[in-house]
């Protein structure tokens, strides 16, 4: 449930997810990442490999931009 907690504990782990997103896309691999809060800039390149994003409601416009690229979920 807490992708953000994983990145807090192991910040370099994002590079593994970027590789999975880059290589896995052509192989039909899908990533399902979940977090209650996500800081802007935390995804560090992973967002380019995410075709679909779902955001119900965020705590701030900045969190909405971090997750969806737009402030609409705030």
UniProtKB/TrEMBL annotation:
Q: What domain of life is recorded for the organism?
A: Bacteria
The record's InterPro entries line, in alphabetical order, gives: FtsK/SpoIIIE/SftA (IPR050206), P-loop_NTPase (IPR027417)
Question: Protein name, please?
Answer: Type VII secretion protein EccC
* Native source organism of the sequence: Streptomyces galbus
Upper taxonomic classification of the species?
Bacteria, Bacillati, Actinomycetota, Actinomycetes, Kitasatosporales
